[in-house]
Amino acid sequence: MPVYLHDPSEDLDYTIDYSEELDAVGSPSDTIAASSFSIEGHGGSPAPSLDAQVDETDRTTVTVSNLELGEIYRLKNVTTTTQGRVLTRAVTIRCEHR
């Protein structure tokens, strides 16, 4: 699982590329139908902010902000394809000054 550094003052985009998984099916018609992001590892206030979108037919992006200095987060993306497959990816984000 990749680890990314995130300064507490930043609003950063994290993109998940599912093109390899979608291409592996061999069907050009299988694309992203729905996507949701969640973040774990923060017990304080304010809660981290997530603003998600589907970029194209094979990528999802979320803008993450309001992270607390010194905290480590797990950002998870669950995506459902038009053929009903569920794909999940997660990354670790460490909040520190850069």
Number of DSSP strand runs: 7
- Tell me the overall shape: elongated
How far apart, in Å, are the first and last alpha carbons?
A: 21 Å
* Overall pLDDT score: 90
Q: Helix-strand pattern, N to C?
A: EEHEEEEE
β content, as a range?
over 45%
Write the CATH architecture name.
Sandwich
* Count of individual helical segments: 1
Ranges with pLDDT <50 over ≥5 residues?
none
Q: Structural class from helices and strands?
A: mainly beta
Report the sheet with the most strands, covering strand number, pairing sense and barrel closure. Answer: 4 strands, mixed
What does this structure look like?
- By secondary structure, the chain is mainly β.
- It has one domain: Immunoglobulin-like (Sandwich), CATH 2.60.40.
- Helices cover 6% and strands 53% of the residues.
- The chain is built from one helix and seven strands; from the N terminus they run ββαβββββ.
- The chain has a four-stranded mixed sheet, with no helix packed on it.
- A hairpin with a 4-residue loop joins strand 4 and strand 5 (59-65).
- The longest helix is centred in the first third of the chain and has 6 residues, at 19-24.
- The chain is elongated and about 45 Å long.
Features:
98 residues, Immunoglobulin-like, 4-stranded mixed beta sheet, 3-stranded antiparallel beta sheet, 1 helix
